[in-house]
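Bumping with the actual sequence this time:
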Amino acid sequence: MKTSAKKKNLTKDSIWMKEPEEHDFPAALDYLELLVDPDEANKMVEQLKAAPTIIKKSKDILRASKLALLPETNIHVKENLKKVEKNKKLSPILLVRGPQELIIADGYHRLCCSYYLTEDLEVPCRLI
């Protein structure tokens, strides 16, 4: 993924699945239960399951989350970059609007991977 020629050919359809994978929702639940009580977390995950998949730019998601961009050397970011290089698609990101910032319930490493590919890349996500 080091060459700019490969980066120029990237589109949301070439690297992203259209719908989240089933295992993304329990991962989101585990994370959300750290932030809110379990009943509220369950409600959020059910809303994420029902929400339509929308498109946002990676740079905007990262900025709204107020999270730092993980280094390209992070093991999970590297794994996702390798997936893209092998033409394997990434699962959309699960997002929750928080009171002060956007919560990335699942997909932080995929978002960072996307940002390294190109910060303007359109990212499929579920947002509640």
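The tokens above came from a reply further down the thread. The beta strands are 53-57, 93-97, 102-106, 122-127.
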